[in-house]
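Run folding on both entries below.
>entry_1
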Amino acid sequence: MLLSISLSWSSLAIPITPRVRVEQLSNTDLILRCQEGKQPDRVAFTELLRRYQGYVDKILYNLAPDWPDRGDLAQEVWLRVYKKIHSLKDPTRFKSWLGRLVTNLFYDQLRKRKKYSESVSLDSPIIDEDDEYQWDLPSLTPNPEENLSTVEFYEHLQRAIADLPETFRVTIVLREIQGLSYEEIAEITQVSLGTVKSRIARARHRLQSLLKPYLDSR
C-alpha cells in the first residue's frame, strides 16, 4: 500500500539568505559580484565606479593637469574596466590593477598626441653618493587631522608637480604616487631603467628647488 505524502516548500522551512545590498559589500566582495556573470552586474558596477572614481580622477589629474579632456579619459577607463574586469584574477589587487589600467590608457593617449619627447635637458645625469636622491613625496591627499600649514604644503606640492615637464611629471607620479617599481615604469614608458632612475632623480631635485622658497619662508 502506497503512502501518499504531500509536502509544500513552506512546510520545509528552509532558511533563505537575502542577497546583500551592494552598498554593504566589502570592496573585494563587490568586485566578485561584478565578476559573477558574463557581464558585470550593473548595480554592483555602478557602486564600484562610485567608490573608485575619485582615485581615477586623482591619477589623471596628476598625470595630465593641463588636459581639458580628462573627463573623457575617465569615462574610457571605466569602459575598459567593464570589459576587462573578468581578467582580474586577484580581486584584492583591484586598486593597483585599476591604477595600471589608467596609466596605460594615459600613455596610449600621450603617444597619439605625439607630446612625448626624448630630448629633454633634465635627462642629464644627476646623482649623489648613493646614486640617486632619496627625497620621497608624501601622499597628495592630506589627512583631515592635518593642520592648515600642512594642507598649504600639499597645495604647493601639487602645483610644483604640475609645473614639471610632462615627461618628468609622469615618471614621478608613477613612482611616488602610484608606487610602481622602476622596472614597471621602464616597461610602461618604454625607456631604459637608467633613464627612469635619472628622470626620477631630476624630478625630485626640481621639486626640491620649486618648493625651497616656500619651505624657507616657513
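>entry_2
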Amino acid sequence: MKIAQIVCAYPPYQGGIGNSAKKFKELLEKKHKIKTFTPQYKKQKNKEDDVVRLKPLIKYGNAAILPQFFYLLKKYDCIILHYPFFGTDLIIWLYKILFGKNKKLIIHYHMDVYKKNLWMKLTSFPSEIIRKSLLKKADKITCFSLDYIKNSQISKIYKKDKNKFIKIPYGIDIKKFYPQKKYIKEGIMKIIFVGGLDDAHYFKGLSVLIKAIELSKEKIELSVVGEGNKKEYFKNLTKLKGLQDKILFLDPVENSELPKIYRENDILILPSIDKSEALGIVLLEAMASGLGVVASDLAGVRSVFEDQKEGLKIKPNNPRDLKEKLDYLAKNCELRKIMGEKARKKIEIEYSLNKMSKKLNLIF
C-alpha cells in the first residue's frame, strides 16, 4: 500500500506530534511504501528521501496551507492526517470530497487546542467549521488514549461511533531507553523537565514547576531540556527568583543523548496546565529509563501511570500541590526507587514497539 502521511511539524523540530509521525513512518515502512509530507518552515534540506518538506502558501506557527496536495495525493492509496494541522486539514477535507472518495483516510487525533491569540483564532476558524465533517469522512480515527478522546472536544463524535476509534499504544524502544542501577542515598533529588520552550508548547507548565521549586525548602535540582523562543524568558525568570543553583538549563540536546540524561535523574516532572497535553511521550521515555514520574491529573496523561505506584498525580496549574509532592519524594528515596522499577515494568508490558507495530498494521 502507498501511504501519504501529513503532519504539521517533523523532526528536527521537537514536539510530540512530529515525533509520533516519525514513529508511524518507521513502523509502517516495514510493510508499506510511506512518504511523509510536512511544511518547510525554514530553509531545511530533505535529509530523508521519504520526507518531503513543502513550501506553504500561507503559514503561521505550525499552521500552514499546502494546496500542493490537490495533485500530490493522486498516486497514494491511503492518507494519514495527524490532527491538528490548521489550514491543511481544510485542503484534505476538500480533496476527499472532490477527488478522494475511494482513498482511505486515517486521522490520528493528537490533542485539542485551547489557548489562541487573535491570528490563531482566525486561522483555526475554518478548521473548527469543517472538523465534524472531516472526522466523519475518515475511515478510522486513531489516538494514543481513549481516556483523552472521551474528555476532548470530539467526545460527542466518539459517543456516536465508538467503533471508528482505535487506540494505538505509543511504542518505546526499551533497548534505547533503559534504567541504570540506582543506589538508595540521601542528598539532592535530581528531577528533569523535557518539553518545548516555545509559544506552541505554552501548556507544558514550566513556570508552575519553577514556582514549586521556589516554594520548596528541600534539596532539589532541576534539569530543563528543551529549546524555543521562550527559553530566555524562563532563564530570566529563574534568575529573578534566585534559583540559578537549583535550576539548570541544558544546552541543546540531541535525541541520541536524551536516554543518558534521563538515567542521570530520579524523577521526571510533567506539570502541564490544560488538555492541550494529551499523553506526554516524555513520561513513557522516562518510565522506560527507570524513573518515577510526577504529572498533572489530566485526561490522557493520567492513563499512562497509576497514582502512588509509578508516580504521583498533581493538580494542574497548582504550584503548591506540586511543591508538596516534590517534598514528599525528596524525603523518600526508597519510594523513588520503587516507583522507577514499577515504571519500567509497565512500559515493558504495555508500551513496547512490537505492540504499537501490530496495532498499526492491523489498520492497513
